[in-house]
Fold these 2 entries.
Entry 1:
Amino acid sequence: MAVPGEESNVPVLSCIFVEHDLKMVLLAALMCVVGSFITVRLWRRTLQASGRMRVEWSFLTGVTAGAAIWATHFIAMLGYLAPVPITFDAQLTIFSIVIAIAGSGLGFYLSGSARKTQATLVGGATIGLSIAAMHYVGMFAYRADGVVSWSGSYIAASIACAIGFAVVSTGLVKASIESHGRRYADLAILSLVVAIVTLHFTGMTAFSVSPIAGLSSGADSEAFQAMAMAVAVAATIIVFTGLSSHVIDNDTRAANQRELEHIASHDELTGLWNRRQFSKVLAERCSRGAGSFHLVMIDLDRFKPVNDTLGHGLGDRALKVIAARIRHVLPEGTELARLGGDEFAFIADGMSAEEITGSCRRLVEILARPVIAEGHVIELGASMGIARAFENGATPDELIQNADIALYAAKAAGRSCHQFFEERMSEKIQLRRSLELDMRRAISRDELEVHYQPKVDAKTGAFTGAEALVRWNHHERGQLSPALFVPLAEELGLINAIGAWVLARACTDASSWPAHMSVAVNLSPVQIMDRRLVRTLRQILKETGFPPQRLELEITETALLGNDVQALATLTEIRALGVKISLDDFGTGYSSLSYLHRFPIDRIKIDRSFVARTPSDAGSASIIQAIARLGASLGIKVTAEGIETESQRDFSSAEGCNELQGYLISRPVPHHQLEALFAKARSEAA
Amino acid sequence: MMTPSTMASSLQRILYRSKARQIGGAPLEPAAVAGIVETSVRNNADCGLSGILLQVDDTFIQLIEGEQAAIEATFERICVDERHSDLVLIDMTSAETRLFPEWSMAHVGSNGDPMRLQVNRDLKEIYLTIETHPDAALKQMRSLLA
Ligand SMILES: Cc1cc2nc3c(=O)[nH]c(=O)nc-3n(C[C@H](O)[C@H](O)[C@H](O)COP(=O)(O)O)c2cc1C
């Protein structure tokens, strides 16, 4: 600021250092820096908001920035060492702060509009202009009792600087958002500070005042000082309110973010991790490489029936209780997830195999305890499969797959237990897979073969026929037992085709036997449920010309269980063809006796387990006696299976069994050997 | 306070047995059992449950009666308690009246005291009949406290 008559090379600097109280200048500078810092933070938030939110954030930023700019100005003015008494025009002073707030608020809003260059230029210029407008209106409010003069060129320079630096600052703020760079944000603060400071001091350089001769240069009134301080404090408070609202907003946003992350990573029902989060953690653990751990998969037993019979509401309740129990048993902080349905998994870290065994036993026990919900007793259980990281797989997929295989093995071992993964388990599953493929081709490859185990009359010892037993001569694995492949064939839906083939083979073979001999063929429960069975049977009888009376179909009690209406219909139709029906493995089921009355049965075969224990075991002996007597009274023939010793043979025939079968008489043999047996017997009899 | 009529409307009874877990092969200490009973008395009084806990050698037999929700919550806590195992639910029924209204959790255990020969014999009998004849066993349990 130029005091008339005094020459200075750098008028702006001498204005700052000579004509101002430096303490106040520093205070103003501090306000300016802090205010700019807060302004830029809020400004960034404004630029990230849209719609109404952007208006509100512009307002808040404007209030903060306006208050800061204005306070800077006001404090600096207090530090101005005027050579004359000073008063402020209250109305204009207030008006100047309104300009600062409204103008910069508008500028912040405009700086966020869609067209980028325009937003920067227009927004920045509006901000710069409002800083300038605030300053000069503020100066009009500044009443100095002296001769005031203005320098036009400094005024123009100050406005140009304010606009220029405000535009730069706008560009930097926008850049800081796009590049997430701290550096741009810092530079934006700096240029905002520069815009405010240069405006103020260049503007003050344009201003000069000199005392009017004859008037004493008195000090400012104390009341004026107090008012000025109060205003400065109020402005400071406004600025910090802006800061705190920003902090609150940040915290809320962080909390919302955490909540969203929680929802995205947790299972809503149980509060455990969900599959997504668990996969993520497992993948992280695997990629870390070092430090082995175990993956334990838990599957509930008997959960589906609960859901089906008691409804999903109770099913969910039970899952919640189960989740809480698992959490209770496992060490705090264990990474535990519900993968979906009734499947859970956890990562056992820093636990030895023994410790895991301990935990799994405890889980098995506690999860098997009844869950009581809404007056219902829900009996569940759990099976577990465990795979060890890096040994049983290095990738999450491998680990999960092998833990699953172990789980499958645990279920196969009778459920409610746990199994560590072993290589042979996957071999077993591999075997199943390859068998599956081969079985589909077994018939066309002619790998199936029927063997026959002859039966004899208990009284005379003469052959009465034979039971047909299927064998599979696998091209690589050799002969496979029906116990292995029949369940698989049932599962794969191949049993009907295989069964039909066996029936046709047996009828063809038996056609060459002596006319009084019968052939017995096993029917799987799946076949009985097949509606095409009777038609297939009729067709085979027709094609082979085999007399139906010489064919016996053996069924097990399990075939009748649960679906007896359809079974009864099918069996009655079969009976109508003239074919006989015999009940296999008799005595092992639950309600054997009731079947005898309800189903058209011609023969019962006493289960080999009873025969094996005769004559020494009194219980088995009396069962055989009872069955034989029952058969006699109902007019049903009785066959004793599994005869291996002479005493068994003698006992069974003495007790009234009609027919005997077992190794003592003959093992199952290929058809040509059977024919030889029959031929030999005939020649001996002759 | 619950009125007797609301209690009667949802009164349930649960009966189970379990084995005291032997920690390091040693049977559960009398002091530990006393602790369980103390906690039970406190908690049960708070939620309006009553009942009895018998101890026959290393077997617990417990009857708890009260409102359904309280029973379910308490039984779930008992279920996950590490101090016993082999828990078997014997019976859960709704009931008209309480069998042990004056006991938040009564406790009777067998021991070697010759003066308690009769009690020990009763406990043994309850132990043997609880599953086949729970009603008679409950009556006998009631008479233990008479
Ligand atoms: C055999 C046995 C019977 C128990 N009976 C009860 C009972 O009737 N009521 C109860 O609140 N807790 C009972 N508990 C204790 C609970 O298992 C659990 O430890 C307790 O309720 C926790 O209470 P706190 O959180 O107040 O310590 C029993 C524990 C055992 C081993």
Entry 2:
Amino acid sequence: MSENSILPDHTTVTAKTMDCDEDDLFEFRDEFAGWLRVNAPGKPAFPLPETFMEVGTDEQFDFLSDWQRSVYEAGYLGVSWPQEYGGRGLPVEFQNAIDLEMIHQNVPIMFNTIGLAWAGPLILDIGSERQKKQYIRRILTAEDVWCQGFSEPGAGSDLANIRTVAVRDGENWRINGSKIWTTLGSYADHMILLAQGDSGAARYKGLNFLLVPMESEGIEVRKIRKMTGEHGFCEVFFNDVFVPKDCLIGQELGGWQVAMRTLTYERGAAGGQASMHTGTRIESSLMIEAATRAEFDGGPALEEPLICDELVRLLIEERANLLHESRKRHSALAGPYPTAIDMSHKLRWTEWNRRLQRLAVELQGLEGSLYLEDPDALDGGAWQRGYLNSFAATIGGGPSEIQSNILAERVLGLPKG
Amino acid sequence: MSDDRATAITFSDEQRLLLEQSERFARNRSGFESVRKRIAAKDDIDRSIWQDIVAMGWANLLVPVAYGGSGLRVDALVPIVESAGRHLLASPLISTALATQLLVDAGSRGQKEMWLPQVGSGSVATTALCEPGGSWALTEPRLQAQCSNGIVRLSGTKIHVRDAKEAQFLIVSAMLDGQPALVVVERAYLRENSLRSQIVLDETQRCYTVSFEEVEVPATMVLDGGDVVEALCALERTGELLFSAEMAGGLGGALALLVNHLTTREAFGGPIGRFQALKHATVDILLDFEAARSLVYGAGTTIASSPGKAASEIATRMAKAHTSDAFVHACDRTIQFHGGLGFTYECNAQLFLRRAMWSQAVFGSAKYHRQKLAPLLLS
Ligand SMILES: Cc1cc2nc3c(=O)[nH]c(=O)nc-3n(C[C@H](O)[C@H](O)[C@H](O)COP(=O)(O)OP(=O)(O)OC[C@H]3O[C@@H](n4cnc5c(N)ncnc54)[C@H](O)[C@@H]3O)c2cc1C
């Protein structure tokens, strides 16, 4: 079976857009902007994570939990999720407006991303009534933090090769095995877990998708140190872990389809997320501002033509990426590859970000060699750390090379290799 | 860069209809066979294509309603030019549109009345702005004009004058009394043998050097209804936009050719498109193509909403910088991935590569525009 042919048609997933009044929307964003100006937290004494994949200390976790809860309680998180489960039932444009304003004011992220942007939309789409009632609201309040147990030491890009098993045992599922690179694993209350069933069926056809409470007996979590030197993701071990039967989501042995659906949310190829403010996107304006303070070979970095040339290239690319969001709203301008913009979202932005951050280091000249906390480092070494961290997004969620395979096969129609 | 206006695209129903109509027209009328026929015809243009373009009203789009035209803004031409580019359809449409814009921006009422209706009824017009040395900045021409007793006498040569042979009139930039000026030179005023056909990479193009040595025209032919420098700057923007649009189309055409080859050519027991070295390079081209379209339609929107000069300049220079590099790169890879066939004159990939090389040189190459963008974006 083809890995890609069963991705849900994203046009049906994003089609939830309702008519919405431009004036209402404008007013709403304005009101939210005002709320943010009063209520957005100031910078704490410790460095905040730039993305949800970088939450590594308890103080970061507590800070971001409080912040997310206060946004929700003010009525600005999950506004396009249904009212009966804790949302406000507004058109998706209202959530987009919030995301844009958050990015614009550069406020801390909505860190419970796996809940808000992947597990949440998934449960709303195909979960049972009980699952919706039990989980959705608590995702928004950050009472329940979620993590994702897909990758294993022997299975990443080749996800169907996982070895962790979840088999029926009376009224329960019994889970054994281990997961790795689990973002937020040490803080999570629940995990979306992909595991082999006991059908004996090969790869794609024999998987189960479970919603697993992390407090279950037999689960052990170990933190892993990232290349930045900080703590990031985790390794999670399952040793005869029992969870109730109704933890299954989707069909039994239909886990692959559920996992692929989850990945379309994760890669931004499908809508329904309660927040897309999952990482402070490095706006080029911030980088340019930093560059005005950087010295390259004894002179201002921005007087170096080769640096300017590369920077301008990146600005053009950024402009194109931003324009895509507007162009895709005109179906007449979709062109011969109508799914290309959505399906390439992750690849375009993450690769752009990686190159921008790398340039931000190089243009510091000799000082580009300094790192976090050195008193002479530009912006405390944030650009250096930013570059190292940029790989989180070019590798996590399916590496760029896999994204290119998907685009080649699904958008251009090239044959599978 | 979070200026929301700079990243919004508007696309009217009218533009949508023009896109559909022009795509159909270009596909039907400009298959590879007709492109090659046109090449073989050397100096001449395809009259029937031009007549149809005129009949569909495209030549008349930019002419104001008061002078018998449709009075649309230049963004209306973008979908048409994109479609033409995709199918390598070459016509004097861009030349005529650029001349029209100069008349509209810099001509007096009487001058507009004199020449604009001609455009509507099918006359080809062009601009003669580039000079030996190849400067892309158009506001400081070196061709000299001297006025005495109501006669303007020109002296100098223009290069890269597109469609000059067909043009009923040319709009020539010159220095008159130390100021840039625009002079309309009708065909009849050109001296014999003043046109030399330039041999250009893109064989679908008709391009000339024009000698204006000792050409004399009545002083009434000097455009005197608007600021010439502003008109020339605006023309740079429109030129950048239209050639970017044509290149975005061409890029799409090259990509389609490439994808078709990758799915049909077999090696080692299957289509070559299954090899990742080719796949990933082709995806890069796809992303370049998508970016080209967004930048082009974005620039069209910007220019049509006439914001400050800087916003237009940033938008069109970005479009031209991107499409120039991306189109050449796409064709370069398309040749390579066609193997030995790609090296032949017979393979259609060369038509796109030659078009790309030609277009990137017109109205400024990628490096030129990035250099111009740096102070606009980084200070
Ligand atoms: C910061 C971070 C956070 C993460 N968080 C989570 C998480 O919360 N939950 C979770 O389940 N996983 C998580 N991951 C894991 C992530 O999904 C995997 O790392 C990713 O899918 C790649 O798998 P891998 O690490 O096994 O690399 P591999 O699959 O071994 O890939 C190694 C290299 O080979 C390339 N490659 C592999 N297959 C192909 C192919 N067919 N064609 C071309 N190139 C190929 C890849 O592109 C890559 O460059 C996280 C990863 C990172 C970096």
